[in-house]
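Write out the 3D structure for:
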Amino acid sequence: MQTVYIQKEHVEGLKALFLDVFSNEPWFDKWEDDQQLDLYIRDLIDNQNSLSLILVDDEGSIVGGSLGYVFHWWEGKEYFIKELFISRNKQNQGLGKLFLEQIYDILATENIKHITLMTERDVPAYSFYQKNGFTELEDSVYFVRKVK
């Protein structure tokens, strides 16, 4: 297993994996419009500050993705992960931990100081991040407001 930067030829495979992971338990996202999914993925991977990585197996198949952005902060650069996922048939096999370790190595070479992300408390990802060294910021709040 190797973590590499996403390339143009990876986009369709990444979209298929993303759709499979997030359209099923526990997320049940309803990506019914392929164009909307394509726009979302491109929002994440085509921006100037995007940092998008994939985990590929020995056959070259994509088994994981980390899609996010690099921001310059007063403490240095940080990587905000918007989406992190592992293939459903590869979960609970240590690949998420391996993927994160390889991501840390890449971030260190780019002098990125922190990783930030958000998840829901009632999904398995919450305990996964805790087990892998992430801490919940007790003084931070994530707000949302629906636009009419």
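Helices lie at 11-22, 34-45, 95-109, 124-131.
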